[in-house]
Design brief:
- This protein has about 300 residues and is of the alpha/beta class.
- The protein has a single domain, classed as Rossmann fold.
- The chain has 11 helices and 9 strands.
- It has a 9-stranded mixed β-sheet, with helices on both faces.
- It is globular, with a radius of gyration of 18 Å.
């Protein structure tokens, strides 16, 4: 079989989905003539109340290419509503956006988070006709913890342990064909050393770090398990196209995490479908990422591979 941190927390209350795993219920539709149609709190699985998505559709005939947006928050916070501006940028360029929630570490440890992301992609494929989506043109985009999960989607298609097939729609693929990774943690085992080499310190190796909480133990004590949360582990030549961006002054995730991931992708896939940009002076997110000129780079990337 092929290939077996930090943002503000936003608290939301979401009703638990009582549907079967391949059904959709409790979705609220809002539409305005001549503009996008939005579906909010669509359940893509029924194991957890977190397993909901918001679907933003452009105006027009469709079917639309689609990008799954994955929020950051150190795997322990954040909410899909925080991706509204990124969704708007995609919709303005004729690309549907789907912002998802996923189980946080207070509820479940790895691999629940990537399993939820994959279940969301499968749900979109299974329900593409209902939501006017092109099931062959699906991408992903995440920042920080969401960057890790977007990268995992881009490299780990077909890894049974990460699929979470019991979450539903198991006959559909979770593969994405284009992934954006904004300053995601990649190799938890080397983050502290890489930070020190860049002249600052972080505490990933602590048993209380977000990454250790994700993995269920101090990362250095379970290196084999931690390797499973590293998207580099799964790289093959048929992976998604990648656009990796990171700030040179990021003091949460060493920028070399992104650089090393890019180099590993390029070594296997070649340089044609993989790109990397170090934003000079940028930190862990901020205005250099959200500026209209930079957002245009992201939407151009997705348009190239999804349209």
């Amino acid at each position: 079989m092929r290939k077996s941190i930090l943002s503000l927390f936003v608290a939301v209350g979401i009703l638990f989905a009582s549907c079967s795993k391949d059904e959709v219920t409790e979705d609220t539709t809002t539409s305005t003539s001549g503009t996008a149609t939005n579906y909010t709190n669509v359940a893509y699985a029924s194991t957890s109340s977190a397993q909901k998505m918001d679907i933003y559709l452009p105006s027009g005939a469709g079917p639309f290419p689609v990008v799954v947006l994955i929020h950051g928050g150190a795997f322990l916070g954040g909410d899909k509503s925080g991706e509204a501006s990124n969704a708007a940028a995609l919709v303005a360029n004729g690309i549907a956006a789907v912002s998802i929630n996923y189980r946080l570490t207070s509820e479940a440890i790895f691999p629940a988070q990537i399993q939820d992301c994959k279940a969301a992609v499968r749900f979109l494929r299974a329900n593409a006709a209902k939501y006017n989506l092109n099931s062959d043109k699906i991408g992903s985009w995440g920042a920080s913890a969401g960057g890790n999960l977007s990268a995992m989607l881009g490299t780990s298609s077909g890894v049974a342990e990460l699929e979470g097939a019991s979450l539903g729609n198991s006959s559909y693929s979770s593969k994405v064909i284009a992934s954006v990774d904004w300053f995601g943690p990649i190799n938890f085992l080397t983050m502290d050393t890489e930070a020190a080499a860049l002249g600052f310190s972080i505490t990933t190796n602590s048993s209380t770090s977000p990454e250790s909480k994700l993995m269920g133990a101090a990362v250095q004590t379970i290196p084999d398990q931690v390797a499973k949360a590293n998207p580099t582990t799964y790289i093959t030549s048929d992976d998604a196209a990648f656009f990796v961006q990171v700030g040179s002054m990021d003091r949460n995730i060493p920028y070399t995490q992104s650089l090393n991931f890019y180099n590993a992708l390029k070594a296997v896939k070649g340089a044609t479908d993989v790109s990397y940009e170090l934003l000079d002076g940028a930190g862990h997110g901020g205005t250099q990422f959200s500026a209209s000129s930079n957002m245009a780079k992201v939407t151009t990337f997705f348009s190239k591979y999804l349209k």
